C-alpha cells in the first residue's frame, strides 16, 4: 500500500492525490546528472582537427590561383660604335635562350616573358627585371638580372628569357640561373671570346655551328642536370679549352668536323654521378685523341669505322697528331660510364710527320 511522500498518510492504490494534504501521489521525475570526463586525448584531437581546418581554409585563400599573370618586358642597348659585348646575366628561376640576331642599331636585346597565376597575397608584378648598360671605348658592358619574387604565392608561372646578341660583336657571355635551362645557339658567323653558362638545377646546352669561332675558353656547368656541347663545322682561334661538368647527370660531347679546326681544341668532360657520351664524326685533316678515366663504371668504344687505335681509355686517330688537334678528356669521379662513338667518313691516312 502506498503512502503519501509528504505527510505519510496511507493511500489507496487508485488514489491520485493525498486525501489529507492534497500532494500528488505520482512519483516525481527522476533527474539524471551526466558528467563529461575531460580526456586529454579527446581535447587534443579536437584542437588538431580545428587547426587542420583553419590551415585548409587559409591555404585555399592564400595560395589559390586567383589572378592571371601575363608579363612581357624588353630591354635593349643601341650604343653606336660598339665592337665588344660583355654580358653578365642572372636569373633565379627561368628558361634562358641566347640567340644571335643581327638587327640594325641594336647590340643586345633581352626579352622577358612570364605567364601563370598568383594567389591572394602574391605580388601584382611577381617578375623584377634590372638592366644596366655602360660603354668604355668600343666595349659595351651589360648587367641584367631577372628575379621571380614571392614564389610560394605563384602557380605554374613560367618565365622565359630570350637574349638576342649582335653576332658582329666580339662576345663575352656570362649567363647563370639557379633553376632552369640555359641554351646557346650559334647558327651564324660569330666570335666568342669567352662563354660561361651555369645553372644549379637544370640543363645547360651550347651549340656552335658553321662559321662560329671560339677564341677563348668555354665553361658549361650544372649541379643537377645534363650538359650538352655541340661543335658543328666551327673553328677555334689559338688554344681553346672547353670545360663541361655535371655533379649529378650526364655530359655529352658531339663534334662533327671535316675541315681544319684552325687551332687546338681541348674538351674536358666530367661528372660525379652520371654518364659521359662522346660522339665524334670526323673527316679530312682532323685528328683526335680521346682519354677516359672512371672510378666505378665502364668505358665503351663503339668503333663503327676504321680510324682509331689504342685501348678504350686511350684512343688516337690514325693521323694524330696534325697541325691542330681535338683532344677529349673524360673523367667520371664517382659512378658512371663513358660511351664513345668515333668514326671517319673516309679512310684515314696515317700521318708521316
Layout of helices and strands:
Layout (H helix, E strand, L loop, with lengths): L39 H24 L3 E11 L6 E10 L1 E6 L7 E11 L8 E10 L2 E10 L5 E12 L4 E10 L2 E5 L3 E12 L2 E5 L3 E3 L3 E7 L2 E6 L2 E2 L1 E11 L2 E7 L5 E11 L2 E7 L4 E10 L2 E4 L5 E4 L2 E4 L7 E11 L2 E7 L9
Tell me about this structure.
By secondary structure, the chain is mainly β. The protein has a single domain, classed as Pectate Lyase C-like (3 Solenoid). Helix content is 7%, strand content 56%. The protein is built from 1 helix and 25 strands. Strands 2, 5, 6, 8, 10, 12, 13, 15, 16, 18, 20, 22, 23 and 24 form a 14-stranded mixed beta sheet that branches. It has an 11-stranded mixed beta sheet with strand order 1-4-7-3-9-11-14-17-19-25-21, with no helix packed on it. A hairpin with a 2-residue loop joins strand 22 and strand 23.
Short description:
The protein has 353 residues and is mainly beta.
CATH architecture: 3 Solenoid
What is the averaged pLDDT score? 85
What is the SS-derived class? Answer: mainly beta
- Radius of gyration using CA atoms only: 38 Å
Instruction: Provide the β-strand percentage band.
Output: over 45%
> Could you estimate the helical fraction of the residues in percent?
under 10%
Broad shape: elongated
How far the N terminus sits from the C terminus, by CA atoms, comes to 139 Å
Spans of at least 5 consecutive residues with low confidence: 53-65
Record field, number of beta strands: 25
- Name of the CATH first level: Mainly Beta
- Discrete helix count: 1
Q: Tell me about the biggest sheet?
A: 14 strands, mixed
Count of distinct structural domains: 1
Amino acid at each position: 500500500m502506498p503512502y503519501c511522500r509528504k505527510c505519510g498518510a496511507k493511500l489507496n492504490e487508485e488514489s491520485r492525490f493525498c486525501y489529507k494534504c492534497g500532494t500528488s501521489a505520482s512519483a516525481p521525475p527522476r533527474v539524471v546528472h551526466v558528467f563529461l570526463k575531460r580526456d586529454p586525448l579527446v581535447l587534443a584531437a579536437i584542437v588538431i582537427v580545428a587547426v587542420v581546418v583553419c590551415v585548409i581554409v587559409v591555404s585555399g585563400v592564400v595560395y589559390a590561383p586567383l589572378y592571371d599573370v601575363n608579363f612581357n618586358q624588353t630591354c635593349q642597348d643601341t650604343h653606336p660604335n660598339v665592337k665588344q659585348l660583355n654580358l653578365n646575366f642572372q636569373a633565379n628561376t627561368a628558361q634562358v635562350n641566347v640567340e644571335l640576331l643581327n638587327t640594325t642599331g641594336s647590340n643586345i636585346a633581352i626579352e622577358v616573358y612570364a605567364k601563370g597565376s598568383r594567389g591572394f597575397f602574391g605580388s601584382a608584378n611577381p617578375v623584377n627585371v634590372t638592366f644596366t648598360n655602360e660603354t668604355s671605348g668600343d666595349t659595351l658592358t651589360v648587367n641584367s638580372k631577372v628575379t621571380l619574387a614571392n614564389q610560394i604565392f605563384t602557380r605554374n608561372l613560367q618565365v622565359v628569357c630570350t637574349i638576342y646578341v649582335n653576332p658582329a660583336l666580339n662576345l663575352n657571355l656570362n649567363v647563370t640561373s639557379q633553376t632552369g635551362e640555359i641554351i646557346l645557339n650559334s647558327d651564324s658567323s660569330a666570335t666568342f671570346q669567352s662563354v660561361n653558362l651555369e645553372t644549379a638545377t637544370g640543363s645547360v646546352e651550347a651549340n656552335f655551328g658553321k662559321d662560329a669561332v671560339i677564341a677563348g675558353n668555354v665553361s658549361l656547368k650544372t649541379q643537377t642536370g645534363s650538359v650538352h656541347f655541340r661543335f658543328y663545322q666551327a673553328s677555334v682561334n689559338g688554344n681553346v679549352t672547353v670545360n663541361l661538368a655535371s655533379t649529378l647527370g650526364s655530359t655529352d660531347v658531339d663534334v662533327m668536323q671535316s675541315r681544319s679546326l684552325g687551332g687546338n681544341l681541348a674538351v674536358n668532360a666530367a661528372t660525379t654521378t652520371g654518364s659521359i657520351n662522346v660522339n665524334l664524326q670526323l673527316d679530312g685533316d682532323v685528328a683526335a685523341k680521346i682519354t677516359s678515366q672512371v672510378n666505378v663504371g665502364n668505358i665503351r668504344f663503339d668503333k663503327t669505322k676504321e680510324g682509331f687505335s689504342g685501348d678504350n681509355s686511350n684512343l688516337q686517330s690514325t693521323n694524330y697528331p696534325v697541325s691542330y688537334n681535338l683532344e677529349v678528356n673524360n673523367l667520371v669521379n664517382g659512378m658512371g660510364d663513358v660511351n664513345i662513338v668515333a668514326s671517319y667518313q673516309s679512310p684515314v691516312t696515317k700521318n708521316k710527320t
